[in-house]
């Protein structure tokens, strides 16, 4: 998703999150492969295909797609955790715990961005303007006049 916004000079505030996550996910994949090879485990990677979307549409649509992808990854991690628990693999459970925590944090961030974008769209419709306000990129002020920032 990060490549879609790469050329935009006025990219939404969550684009750095997409860029960071692309790098983080690649590093995590390498950690998983290394972990499995060190334990001489059989490597069976699930198929996680690219979304069938050429145009991400609105900011809200891009966030929804990102949420779906994060939830799918979280589901795969939960399945691995269940399997490790069933097989009493405590080292694997500990290894997965770190990744599951990060996934939950990412999902919460995207949920925040989702509600923020929905509120911006609602305010835009209420104002009756045909142009998207400058704040719609996620930069700027909330409806209360505060700086928009994700929950901690």
Automatic annotation (TrEMBL):
GO terms for molecular function: ferric iron binding; ferrous iron binding; ferroxidase activity. The keyword Transport does not apply. It catalyses: 4 Fe(2+) + O2 + 4 H(+) = 4 Fe(3+) + 2 H2O. Fe cation binds at residues 28, 70, 103. PROSITE patterns: FERRITIN_LIKE. Residues 143-152 have a biased composition (Polar residues). The keyword Oxidoreductase applies. GO terms for cellular component: cytoplasm. Stores iron in a soluble, non-toxic, readily available form. Important for iron homeostasis. Has ferroxidase activity. Iron is taken up in the ferrous form and deposited as ferric hydroxides after oxidation. Belongs to the ferritin family. This is Ferritin. It comes from Leptonychotes weddellii.
